Amino acid sequence: MDTQSYLPVEPGVGMEENFLSLDDILLSHERLPIRTECRFPRLGYLERSTDAQDIPEGTKMELPLWLSKGLYEKKRRVLSVELPKVYREGWRTVFNADPNVVDLHKMGPYYYGLGSQMLHFDSPENPEIAQTLLQTFVGRFRRNMDSSQNAYNEDTSALVERLDSTCTLK
Amino acid sequence: WEACVHSNEAKAEGRAELIPSIKLRHCCLLRNQRCLTAYLYDRLLRMRALRWEYGSVLPANVRFHMCAEEVQWFSQYKKSLASFMRSLGGGEGLDLTQDMKPPKSLYIEVRCLKDHGEFEIDDGTVILLKKNSQHFLPRWKCEQLIRQGVLEHVVS
To answer: Can you give the residue ranges of the DNA replication complex GINS protein PSF3 N-terminal domain (chain A) (predicted)?
Structure first.
């Protein structure tokens, strides 16, 4: 529905998700590499690679964000979450050097959203991650605003392709 | 709450090792609940938009896709909106669903996109809306038909 009367629930701001926001639900479907810190009895069928009845401690798996958030505990008894590549040291340097160069859609369409959610997992690099997210947005903002205001009758699909979904929402 | 009950049972029976699995199952249940609630809520928002776009009588093919509770919600929303609109404008009422964009002129040129049959305007004249015919009509009469896609505003 394109009309001005349909006002869907917008995604949450920062580290909060909006429960009813369809965008946040899609975002939390992204998978994260995790390592289990305890045993999960009788759930072996979730882990296709082995035929065990349980998921043993120390298994490396990929779980969606909603499950990781739900199971994560501060004392780290249950899960430990690894940072996806885009938020690690190497990529952070790239972003700090020049934010406009990167194709954010290819990096997973929810760069900003997922990055904000990663801050829930108490990584020691949290302040740097938050800083990089902000600086990247600030760096790309000017060009995005420019293109959106001046795109009369032109084909903007090439530009839009390289944006992540937060920026594509016009 | 269910997870608490199961966890308490697990602890009581000395099977605290099951707790992570119980938590995982509970997360899945909550996820399903979230997806369903968001879906139903989004449907509601679209129905509300329909009232503003189509008017108070929905076309049959739309009503066909609505469940009984949604139809009931829609009629109650209609009533609330109507009583609100009646209370505006010093007791006379004001139709908020008209003129959603500031109007530029009193009469507009419209072209008919589909056959819609006969259409009566305020002074009694009856216009036959046949596909591709053009008419010069009062704006407020056309607004709803434009939104429904029957007429098209011709900008010359």
So the answer is: 21-72
What tokens appear for B116 in the block? 């819609």
DSSP state of B55: -
The torsion angle over the Cα atoms of residues A128, A130, A132 and A133, rounded to 10 degrees, is: 160
B21 with A22: Cβ contact below 8 A: no
Could you tell me which of A26, A13, A9, A12 has the C-alpha nearest to residue A134?
A13
- C-beta of residue A103 within 8 angstroms of C-beta of residue A163: no
Query: Tens place of pLDDT for every residue, chain B, 156 residues?
Result: 666 677 666 666 667 778 888 999 999 999 999 999 999 999 999 999 988 888 888 888 888 999 999 999 999 999 999 898 888 877 677 788 777 777 777 788 888 888 887 878 777 778 888 888 888 888 777 777 887 778 888 776
Alpha carbons A56 and A37: distance in angstroms, whole number: 9
pTM of the model: 0.76
User: How many Cβ pairs within 8 Å bridge chains A and B?
Assistant: 68
DSSP per residue, A115-152: HHHHGGG--TTHHHHHHHHHHHHHHHHHHHHHHHHT-T
Whether residue A44 has pLDDT greater than 60: yes
